[in-house]
Protein backbone atom coordinates (compact mmCIF):
# COMPACT_ATOMS: atom_id res chain seq x y z
CA UNK A 1 0.00 0.00 0.00
CA UNK A 2 1.39 3.39 -1.01
CA UNK A 3 2.01 5.81 1.79
CA UNK A 4 0.06 9.09 1.46
CA UNK A 5 1.57 12.40 2.41
CA UNK A 6 -0.08 14.05 5.38
CA UNK A 7 -0.91 17.09 3.25
CA UNK A 8 -2.95 14.90 0.86
CA UNK A 9 -5.20 13.76 3.68
CA UNK A 10 -6.23 17.30 4.64
CA UNK A 11 -6.35 19.06 1.29
CA UNK A 12 -9.67 20.21 -0.09
CA UNK A 13 -10.90 18.19 -3.08
CA UNK A 14 -9.24 19.35 -6.29
CA UNK A 15 -6.55 21.37 -4.49
CA UNK A 16 -2.90 20.46 -4.84
CA UNK A 17 -1.58 20.65 -1.25
CA UNK A 18 1.96 21.02 -2.54
CA UNK A 19 1.09 24.02 -4.71
CA UNK A 20 2.89 27.24 -3.89
CA UNK A 21 0.62 29.40 -1.76
CA UNK A 22 -1.65 26.62 -0.51
CA UNK A 23 -0.51 26.88 3.11
CA UNK A 24 -2.47 29.65 4.84
CA UNK A 25 0.17 30.12 7.53
CA UNK A 26 3.05 30.43 5.07
CA UNK A 27 1.08 32.77 2.82
CA UNK A 28 0.18 35.01 5.76
CA UNK A 29 3.77 35.04 7.06
CA UNK A 30 5.15 35.97 3.65
CA UNK A 31 2.55 38.72 3.23
CA UNK A 32 3.29 40.10 6.71
CA UNK A 33 7.02 40.13 6.00
CA UNK A 34 6.50 41.97 2.70
CA UNK A 35 4.12 44.56 4.15
CA UNK A 36 6.38 45.05 7.17
CA UNK A 37 9.36 45.66 4.86
CA UNK A 38 7.39 48.28 2.92
CA UNK A 39 6.08 50.04 6.03
CA UNK A 40 9.50 49.90 7.71
CA UNK A 41 11.01 51.59 4.64
CA UNK A 42 8.28 54.25 4.69
CA UNK A 43 8.83 54.89 8.43
CA UNK A 44 12.65 54.88 8.20
CA UNK A 45 12.98 58.70 8.11
CA UNK A 46 11.55 58.92 11.66
CA UNK A 47 13.64 56.00 12.95
CA UNK A 48 10.77 53.69 13.93
CA UNK A 49 9.98 50.19 12.70
CA UNK A 50 6.35 49.31 12.01
CA UNK A 51 6.26 47.05 15.09
CA UNK A 52 7.54 49.87 17.30
CA UNK A 53 4.97 52.30 15.91
CA UNK A 54 2.19 49.76 16.49
CA UNK A 55 3.23 49.41 20.12
CA UNK A 56 3.28 53.20 20.59
CA UNK A 57 -0.16 53.50 18.96
CA UNK A 58 -1.66 50.88 21.26
CA UNK A 59 -0.17 52.50 24.36
CA UNK A 60 -1.49 55.90 23.25
CA UNK A 61 -4.99 54.48 22.71
CA UNK A 62 -5.20 52.79 26.11
CA UNK A 63 -3.22 55.23 28.23
CA UNK A 64 -1.23 53.02 30.58
CA UNK A 65 -1.79 49.33 29.84
CA UNK A 66 -0.17 46.58 31.84
CA UNK A 67 2.35 44.51 29.93
CA UNK A 68 -0.19 41.65 29.88
CA UNK A 69 -2.91 43.87 28.45
CA UNK A 70 -0.57 45.25 25.81
CA UNK A 71 0.65 41.78 24.84
CA UNK A 72 -2.96 40.63 24.50
CA UNK A 73 -3.93 43.64 22.36
CA UNK A 74 -0.97 42.99 20.07
CA UNK A 75 -1.58 39.20 19.98
CA UNK A 76 1.99 38.78 21.20
CA UNK A 77 3.51 36.74 23.99
CA UNK A 78 5.01 38.64 26.91
CA UNK A 79 8.57 37.61 26.08
CA UNK A 80 8.31 38.98 22.55
CA UNK A 81 6.69 42.14 23.89
CA UNK A 82 9.50 42.62 26.45
CA UNK A 83 12.05 42.24 23.63
CA UNK A 84 10.23 44.87 21.55
CA UNK A 85 9.81 47.28 24.48
CA UNK A 86 13.54 47.45 25.33
CA UNK A 87 14.58 49.79 22.46
CA UNK A 88 11.52 51.98 23.06
CA UNK A 89 12.42 52.28 26.74
CA UNK A 90 16.12 52.82 25.91
CA UNK A 91 15.17 55.67 23.56
CA UNK A 92 12.87 57.08 26.26
CA UNK A 93 9.70 56.75 24.15
CA UNK A 94 8.05 54.74 26.93
CA UNK A 95 8.42 54.24 30.66
CA UNK A 96 7.71 50.96 32.40
CA UNK A 97 6.43 51.60 35.92
CA UNK A 98 5.29 49.44 38.80
CA UNK A 99 1.48 49.34 38.91
CA UNK A 100 0.33 51.21 42.03
CA UNK A 101 -2.67 48.87 42.42
CA UNK A 102 -0.78 45.61 41.87
CA UNK A 103 2.94 45.83 42.53
CA UNK A 104 3.50 42.56 40.64
CA UNK A 105 2.34 44.23 37.41
CA UNK A 106 4.04 46.82 35.25
CA UNK A 107 2.29 49.69 33.47
CA UNK A 108 3.64 51.03 30.23
CA UNK A 109 3.24 54.73 29.54
CA UNK A 110 4.06 56.87 26.56
CA UNK A 111 6.53 59.62 27.46
CA UNK A 112 6.40 63.11 25.97
CA UNK A 113 9.28 62.06 23.75
CA UNK A 114 7.27 58.98 22.68
CA UNK A 115 4.19 61.12 21.92
CA UNK A 116 6.36 63.39 19.78
CA UNK A 117 7.88 60.40 17.95
CA UNK A 118 4.43 58.96 17.31
CA UNK A 119 3.25 62.33 15.97
CA UNK A 120 6.34 62.51 13.75
CA UNK A 121 5.53 59.06 12.33
CA UNK A 122 1.88 59.80 11.53
CA UNK A 123 2.41 61.40 8.12
CA UNK A 124 4.86 58.68 7.05
CA UNK A 125 2.40 55.99 8.18
CA UNK A 126 -0.42 57.75 6.26
CA UNK A 127 1.75 57.67 3.13
CA UNK A 128 2.41 53.94 3.66
CA UNK A 129 -1.33 53.33 4.09
CA UNK A 130 -2.06 55.25 0.89
CA UNK A 131 0.62 53.29 -0.95
CA UNK A 132 -0.86 50.00 0.24
CA UNK A 133 -4.36 51.01 -0.81
CA UNK A 134 -3.09 52.22 -4.20
CA UNK A 135 -1.31 48.90 -4.79
CA UNK A 136 -4.02 46.63 -3.38
CA UNK A 137 -7.17 48.69 -3.91
CA UNK A 138 -9.31 50.45 -1.29
CA UNK A 139 -12.11 47.87 -1.31
CA UNK A 140 -9.71 44.92 -1.14
CA UNK A 141 -7.79 46.67 1.64
CA UNK A 142 -10.97 47.13 3.69
CA UNK A 143 -11.98 43.50 3.08
CA UNK A 144 -8.50 42.32 4.07
CA UNK A 145 -8.59 44.31 7.32
CA UNK A 146 -12.02 42.83 8.12
CA UNK A 147 -10.76 39.30 7.42
CA UNK A 148 -7.64 39.79 9.50
CA UNK A 149 -9.70 41.27 12.35
CA UNK A 150 -11.76 38.06 12.30
CA UNK A 151 -8.63 35.88 12.26
CA UNK A 152 -7.08 37.54 15.34
CA UNK A 153 -10.33 37.17 17.28
CA UNK A 154 -10.90 34.67 20.05
CA UNK A 155 -13.82 33.05 18.19
CA UNK A 156 -11.55 32.13 15.26
CA UNK A 157 -8.96 30.58 17.59
CA UNK A 158 -11.66 28.66 19.44
CA UNK A 159 -13.17 27.23 16.24
CA UNK A 160 -9.70 26.42 14.88
CA UNK A 161 -8.72 24.62 18.09
CA UNK A 162 -12.00 22.68 18.19
CA UNK A 163 -11.42 21.48 14.64
CA UNK A 164 -8.04 19.98 15.55
CA UNK A 165 -8.13 16.28 16.40
CA UNK A 166 -7.34 15.52 20.06
CA UNK A 167 -5.91 18.95 20.82
CA UNK A 168 -6.13 19.49 24.56
CA UNK A 169 -4.58 22.94 24.55
CA UNK A 170 -2.66 25.20 22.24
CA UNK A 171 -0.73 28.46 22.45
CA UNK A 172 -3.72 30.36 21.03
CA UNK A 173 -5.99 28.92 23.71
CA UNK A 174 -3.60 29.74 26.57
Features of the shown structure:
globular; 174 residues; Arc Repressor Mutant, subunit A; mainly alpha; two-stranded antiparallel ribbon
Compact overview of the structure:
This protein has helices at residues 6-10, 24-43, 50-62, 67-73, 78-90, 112-136, 138-151, 154-163, and strands at residues 94-98, 106-110.
SSE inventory with pairings:
Layout: H1 6-10, H2 24-43, H3 50-62, H4 67-73, H5 78-90, E1 94-98, E2 106-110, H6 112-136, H7 138-151, H8 154-163
Antiparallel strand pairs: 1-2
Helix pairs in contact: 2-6, 3-6, 4-5, 6-7
Description:
The protein is mainly alpha-helical and 174 residues long. The chain has a domain at 24-132: Orthogonal Bundle (Arc Repressor Mutant, subunit A). Helix content is 61%, strand content 6%. It has 8 helices and 2 strands; from the N terminus they run αααααββααα. A two-stranded antiparallel ribbon has the order 1-2. The longest helix has 25 residues, at 112-136. The chain starts with 5 loop residues before the first helix and ends in an 11-residue tail after the last helix. The mean pLDDT is 89.
Amino acid sequence: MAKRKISESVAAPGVDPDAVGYCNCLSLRKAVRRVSQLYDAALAPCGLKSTQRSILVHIARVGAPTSGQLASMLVMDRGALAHNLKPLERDKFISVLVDTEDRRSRRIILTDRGKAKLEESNELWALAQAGFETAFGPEQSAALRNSLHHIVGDAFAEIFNQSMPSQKSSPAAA
